[in-house]
Specification:
The chain has two helices and four strands. It is α+β, with helices and mostly antiparallel strands and about 90 residues long. Strands 1-2 form a two-stranded antiparallel sheet. The chain has a two-stranded parallel ribbon with strand order 3-4. A hairpin with a 2-residue loop joins strand 1 and strand 2. The longest helix is centred in the last third of the chain and has 15 residues. The termini are far apart.
Amino acid sequence: MEADVDVTDIENEAGQITVFAPHTEYAKAKQALLDALGELDFEVDEIQFVPQTTTPVAGEDVAMFEKLLDMLNELDDVQNVFHNAELPDT
């Protein structure tokens, strides 16, 4: 990117481009893309917190972790729960 934006990574998968930048660079990164490519249709246009490392959860801990997530999601004050747990596919 030619603009003065701190982009950490760019991925292109199946024709979908994902731009990773610090959350403080969100507005500058979006404007740089619009300036360079014109009108764009963003599939997702938001700040997301993506973990840089993950921690595997296995065995009995999976059920306990899922119970914790359920309890957190039931709270009225909780809007989103972010974690870096790597859960097995079920």
